[in-house]
Design brief:
Helix content is about 30%, strand content about 30%. By secondary structure, it is α+β, with helices and mostly antiparallel strands. A hairpin with a 5-residue loop joins β6 and β7.
Length: about 170
């Protein structure tokens, strides 16, 4: 397993790429999952999409276990949200690609996701709460969408300008 660099703003060109489907979850995909998990734990974070390490494939990892608990990683390839509740919930979201920035985002409270697991098995998962939010956040990444796209244009423009300025000043 290798810890890889996480792509951050202002690199919107990479972060906004739409990821391609994983042809089959094979040894190479499992190695990618392992690198993603290692990278996410090191950051530390609770979710990471492959595009965040510069690999434009539809793969993500999530682990909502708390420090000191047994790790419970979720490996997801080719996720598709097949159902969403009309009831919404608000969560303060952050992102490893937009470090140290947090904002309230409203998303469906419950979702159903179809995907391929680490063994290329077809799976379906009903999620609510933080897991539903995290899955939606990471699936957005695979579609070239950032969590700041769910906030006001004014706030989004401010955070993008902040990261552009920091990059120009060599502070990223």
């Amino acid at each position: 397993m290798t810890t890889r660099p996480i792509i951050t703003l202002p690199d919107e060109k990479t972060l906004r790429q739409v990821s391609k489907p994983v042809a089959q979850v094979d040894a190479a995909t499992r190695a990618l999952f392992d690198d993603m998990l290692e990278t996410m734990y090191a950051a530390p974070g609770i979710g990471l999409a492959a595009i965040q390490i510069g690999v434009p494939v539809r793969a993500l990892v999530i682990d909502l276990s708390k420090e000191g608990e047994e790790k419970r990683p979720l490996f997801v390839a080719n996720p598709e949200i097949v159902a969403s509740s009309t009831e919404l919930s608000d969560y303060e979201e952050g992102c490893l690609s937009i470090p140290e920035y947090f904002e309230m985002v409203q998303r469906p409270k419950e979702i159903t996701v179809r995907y391929r697991d680490r063994n290329n098995e077809a799976m379906e998962l009903q999620a609510s709460g933080l897991l539903a939010t995290c899955l939606q956040h990471e699936i957005d990444h695979l579609n070239g969408v950032l969590f700041i796209d769910h906030i006001s244009k004014l706030k989004r423009d401010r955070v993008i300008k902040k990261f552009q300025k920091a990059a120009k000043l060599g502070k990223l």
